[in-house]
Design a protein that fits this description.
eight-stranded mixed sheet; alpha/beta; Rossmann fold; globular; about 15% strand; about 290 residues; 12 helices
């Protein structure tokens, strides 16, 4: 009888192990020490933060789904003191965003007149719609792309020639720039010879003016006792650089929580290159379906 029970137990363990091995999780969350953690712990930390940076992979459906879920859950805690903001909308479109959220213009007006990313309808419109539904502010934090292009072509000094009205959409000049930050240094390194021929010393400066401007508009719109959640490409906030470096120059006492995103062949263990990239690292299979 004991042998029958033992055999049955062994069968159950083997069967459950077989089922587990066939599981295909869509994502896994790691903490800054590369230890597996969960969404509840991430949420609790975000609820205590002044600012949450959700660094996304722009074409990842998991990132976009989790952004909306996290935003919804933060709203339960923060209510009207939750502020949303995104790299994907440029500062000179703030008025039309405000008009959309206030119901003064239609979605068609917005689509026709705003500068929208190709995946806006599927990936960012749900965030705007949530802000509209809950009467929350949504801040367009990025520099107008024409001014970033100007820096890429002629350097930071070219911004001095802009009209005063244009400068309202940029962080106050002059902009500090630290060329030793690893995120900017890597932009000048490329193994692709065809790509490297198009890389100029001004490329990381164009990235820096984006980071500085986003930091400026985030800091300008912080609510006391609230949380500002910002959606941006993961490289803009990875390794506590980019936007965060500029934000700390403006307001060093802020409590900031960062989320980075990465893809790997296997998500069982975090790759070494992603260690310490953020407070939380969202890890997804590299063969995950893309949104565009």
């Amino acid at each position: 009888m004991k042998s029958i029970k033992l055999a049955f137990l062994i069968f159950c363990v083997a069967y459950s192990t077989s089922l587990f091995s066939q599981d295909k999780p869509a994502y896994k969350i790691f903490n800054s020490k590369s230890k597996a953690t969960d969404y509840d712990k991430l949420l609790k930390e975000c609820e205590k933060a002044d600012i949450v940076f959700f660094g996304e992979l722009h074409n990842s459906p998991i990132c976009h789904w989790l952004q909306l879920e996290l935003t919804r859950d933060l709203f339960k805690e923060k209510k009207e003191k939750l502020v949303l903001g995104a790299e994907m909308y440029e500062a000179d479109n703030q008025l039309i965003i405000n008009e959309l959220l206030a119901g003064k213009i239609t979605d068609k007006n917005f689509k026709d007149e705003a500068k929208l990313w190709p995946n806006n309808e599927t990936d960012y419109k749900p965030l705007l719609s949530f802000a509209k539904e809950k009467k929350l502010r949504f801040i367009a934090t990025n520099i107008p792309r024409r001014y970033a292009a100007l820096v890429n072509k002629r350097g930071m000094e070219a911004l001095d020639s802009l009209d005063a009205e244009a400068k309202l959409f940029i962080a106050p000049l002059p902009i500090k720039y630290d060329s030793t930050l690893s995120g900017y240094k890597k932009m000048l390194e490329s193994d692709d010879k065809s790509a490297s021929s198009h890389i100029t010393p001004n490329l990381p400066k164009a990235q820096a003016i984006k980071d500085a401007t986003m930091a400026y508009f985030i800091n300008k719109n912080i609510v006391s006792g609230g949380t500002f959640i910002h959606y941006n490409g993961t490289y803009h906030s990875e390794n506590y650089q980019g936007i965060i470096w500029y934000l700390k120059l403006l307001n060093p006492n802020l409590k900031i929580v960062t989320i980075a995103s990465t893809e790997q062949e296997s998500i069982e263990k975090l790759d070494e290159e992603s260690e310490n990239a953020a407070d939380f690292i969202l890890c997804m299979p590299e063969n995950m379906t893309k949104t565009r």
